[in-house]
Write a structure and sequence with these properties.
263 residues; alpha/beta; Rossmann fold; 7-stranded parallel sheet; two-stranded parallel sheet; 10 helices; 9 strands; oxidoreductase activity; oxidoreductase; Short-chain dehydrogenase; SDR_fam
């Protein structure tokens, strides 16, 4: 299989690229940094720049006859209150988490249509299913990607191209160090500091990213995909069906306790 993975310099993307490369697949890792790996080919690419994406895909197709799988993994986190977040910060986040993923799909779909096959996994978050306190725009950016994923499933189905959103819980990576953080104003500072510590501890105790690769390998064995899959610890995954069935006020009370907003 020929696989393209974005955000492959660190964390989940690097773990995925190494995992599938070791399995004998032809893996191309797209990230802004060049990465030395014996298991995948690094293609320095800023996925917020469509011309760079087009050049990267063109280079890949000089040696490869097919593109079998795109994993849209590149993304960033963002923390801060809704009130304090600037327009520039919000746009930067959406440009990477949403627009970058859409541009990657645009670049590979012509080849997949010609093949009449191909698969795309958009890496989302369990947090896209609910507005997380002090991560509202991160939740919103991933929720937007979810809806685009649902829409494009209809549009590309005539060519037997499959796409899904894979919602991840906390994975043990360096995301905490790389988040965009808004300046937090005085009214929010005390509660933000408390919640920020909790969210970082959840990442520190998160799932090993190699387990995400194992889960994706199982997904690839399926003949057909649902629109959404959820991977993470039980305490995080259970939040999704609970939101569907519980009264909103009661659900919010549970979320406040989970986030340590109240004891």
């Amino acid at each position: 299989m020929t696989i393209i993975i974005t955000g492959s310099s660190t964390g989940i993307g690097f773990a995925l690229a190494e995992f599938f490369g070791k399995k004998g697949h032809r893996v191309f890792g797209l990230s802004r940094k060049n990465v030395n790996s014996e298991f995948f080919t690094s293609v320095p690419t800023d996925i917020t720049d469509y011309s760079q994406i087009q050049n990267a895909v063109s280079e890949i197709l000089k040696t490869e006859q097919r593109i079998d799988l795109l994993i849209n993994n590149a993304g960033m986190g963002m923390v801060g209150s809704v009130e304090d977040s600037s327009a520039e910060e919000i746009l930067k986040l959406f440009h990477l988490n949403l627009v970058g993923s859409v541009q990657m799909m645009k670049a590979v779909l012509p080849k997949m249509r010609t093949q009449k096959s191909g698969r795309i996994i958009n890496i989302s978050s369990i947090g896209s299913e609910m507005g997380l306190p002090f991560r509202g725009f991160y939740s919103a950016s991933k929720a937007a990607l979810d809806k685009v994923t649902e829409a494009i499933r209809y549009e590309i189905s005539p060519w037997k191209i499959q796409v899904c959103a894979l919602h991840l819980g906390d994975i043990k990576t360096g995301i905490a160090e790389n988040r965009v953080q808004s300046t937090v104003s005085e009214p929010y500072q005390k509660i933000f500091d408390k919640i920020h510590q909790v969210m970082n501890s959840h990442v520190d105790k998160g799932t090993n990213p190699v387990e995400v690769a194992v889960y994706i390998e199982k997904l690839l064995a399926k003949k057909s995909w649902k629109a959404h899959y959820y991977f993470g610890k039980f305490g995080q995954k259970i939040g999704v069906p609970l939101k569907w069935i519980l009264p909103q006020n009661f659900y919010e009370k549970l979320m406040r306790k989970y986030s340590k907003l109240e004891e």
